[in-house]
Amino acid sequence: MDNNKILTMTFINKSGTKVNLKVEYAKQDLAKDDIVTLMDSIIAKGVITSKGGPLMFKDSAEIVEKGSSKIALR
């Protein structure tokens, strides 16, 4: 089975700007606690930075599932 899930985590950086971090092929069974822990770890360890400085706060997260459907034209 193909995994078409994309986890988008949105953070607020030091200058107050939103910064999106996308992870393709996210695990099928990600729980809210897993995502919160991951985002807290990214902020605490300072592994990601942006033009507006380091990531300071969690803003939001979402999982998007991509898909496609063929359309028969003939």
UniProtKB/TrEMBL annotation:
It holds the Pfam family DUF2922. InterPro entries: DUF2922. It comes from the Bacteria. This is Protein of uncharacterized function (DUF2922). The lineage of its organism: Bacteria, Bacillati, Bacillota, Clostridia, Eubacteriales.
